[in-house]
Fold:
Amino acid sequence: MRIALVGNQNSGKSTLFNTMTGDNQKIGNWPGVTIDRKEGTVKGTNHTIVDLPGIYSLSPYTSEEEISRNFVFEERPDLIINIVDATSIERSLYLTTQLLELDCKVILALNMSDLLEKKSLVIDEEKLSSLLHTSVVKISALKGSGIDELIKLIDEGRILDNPHKKIYQEDLEEAIEDIAKGLEMVHSRFVSVKLLENDVKFASLQSKDIEAKRHQLEQKYNSDIEEIIANQRYEYVVEVKKQCVVKKEYKETITDKLDKVFLNKWAALPIFVVIMFAIYFLAVGVVGSATVDFVDGLVGKFSDFMSEWLASVNASPWAVSLVVDGIIAGVGAVLNFVPQLIILFICICLLETTGYMSRIAFFLDRLFKKFGLSGKSLIPFIVGSGCAVPGIMSTRTIEDEDEKRMTIMLAPFIPCSAKLPIIALFAGFFFDRYNGLVSASLYFLAVVTILISALIMKKFFFKGDSSAFISELPEYKLPNLKYLLRDVWDKTFSFIKRAGTIILLCSVIIWFTLSFSWKFQYGVDVEDSILASIGKCLSWIFYPMLGELSWGATVSAIQGLVAKEQVVSSMAVIAGLADDVTEGALIFSQTGIFGFFNPASAYAFMVFNLFSAPCFGAIGAMRRELGTTKKTLIAVAFQTGVAWILGCIVFGIGSLIMLL
Amino acid sequence: MKKRIYNKGEECHMSDLIKGQKALVTGLHGDNLALRRRLLDMGVTTGVEVFIKKIAPMGDPVDIEIRGYELCIRKSDMRNIDVKVI
Structure:
């Protein structure tokens, strides 16, 4: 059996999906976490279940909502599990009335039933079931209660048939039935309503007769048809609610209390700044620097061990060099930063799952609107601080095309987790005690750059009016520890996996091109190597921000296209082979190849690497969301241009400050 | 310019309401049909009661309580909604 999960945004579909399948799909506490369909198998059965983006109605508003409508309408699942957020039942049942018009069985999963008590609500699910003539199960997707019951119900096929209950007033109902009679197709009741509403999707089925009916109804109600139908749906829902929901006395909820602080007129912005600052301070500053030395020590020990062991088995010098100077130096340089990434991943997961992120979008909308963006642009920016790929994908929830395209082009400016090693390496070495401050400053520089770039883009490229911002404000929730651990583990593991695959491969290539000359002689001075000669052709590009013609920095920065952490890995390999050092901390030794770096050029180089073209993975995501290669190339050129200019400015200002 | 405060029984746009006021929606207008449809789907229909619950620190957007949940909406979009203060 094929089952579709349908429900409002942020009603807990993905959480239910995870509980039913044992998967760990991304969940969060903001509307629009799921932007594509995901398939899985229900635990202990062979039923396929499809998780879909949240919708409020079967009249899609944004591109990801269209996915849901098309799935339930065209792919005809055998069963729809309609997740109803028990705490906002009215709006949820509005969608239910539409789903019940389809020729499909529907089962109602009354979610978040554990929160009902807190909201002083009591729902009589038997009454609800008899009124809607639909099977109803009370569940809590987060706590896992009621899930077994739900699965059992589906497995045993004890689901009430969908009788297409009449919900409208007589005249409207008559019109719908009349139209339905003339349609010989599935979902005829649903299509009739859509035809009456004059939905463009069904334009080919329109007729004079339908038009006459619509006209008649509109005159009678002195309103337009869409409003008449929406009104009557809601009237029906209110009636149902009256009969099966009892609300006890009103209490101020914890959410209301928290919002008095987090959305306070004066405190909101400072709190946000402090939180973002704290994240980078924690990750790169305090805890971060403590862990780097530890991991670095381990890598160093391993490197010594390998070099001794290889020598003891009489491995040739080039083999020792490949393993020690190439692979271990390259991969080790990246692995150093794993503890810091874990902290960053935990912080981002907390922002996403507690509900604070929706608040940020809410209170920054005014500011962002001035720059031609939406408050919703902030969600891609924060998700993007983990990884730009899901960040870019989450722009799908933005209604306005211009705002969406601008957000896609700007989201890669945010320092993602792969850029963290670059920040940590430079900030840790050149800004010592202030490294936390410097890393946080880069985050805010990114935000400022985004706003200024948005203003420029708005002025020259996107001239449309700014659009609407409609979103719901979810309640605060405590994070689910199990999900948090799995989410952080998944992300950390994928970073380590990348270190063991892409970074390892690159390290081998870097080692090879550094150890050989164009004549394939081994053991040449690095200055005469293949890589150096390539770098020397291009090193002029970086002269204005480094104050030095450095082929090493040049080739490293270019490798950021593969993965941003590769910049660090490449520098470690180059420094190691050039100066015969293997430990990452010695990359910047005074006499070494990167000895010319000073705080000004270090900051400038960081800025360039942060803002220039993102990795191929993110460029691919941009290509998918922007739709054309041309737009993507423009975006990448724009980003790299901004990065280069900023890098040069930073170096200029920094050098001046250092002179004083 | 001091903002005019509408009293009980008076009709105005939803954007004219201040924090803590309650009102009934009396109609929706505006050229943006997609937006109008969205508002209808979100439950902003004639006769529904709204409560201005929170206002973002910079004055916009506004968080309204409607049909038992909280909806964020910009002031510019609220201008398309007619209400009667209660």
The first helix of chain A runs from residue 13 to 21.
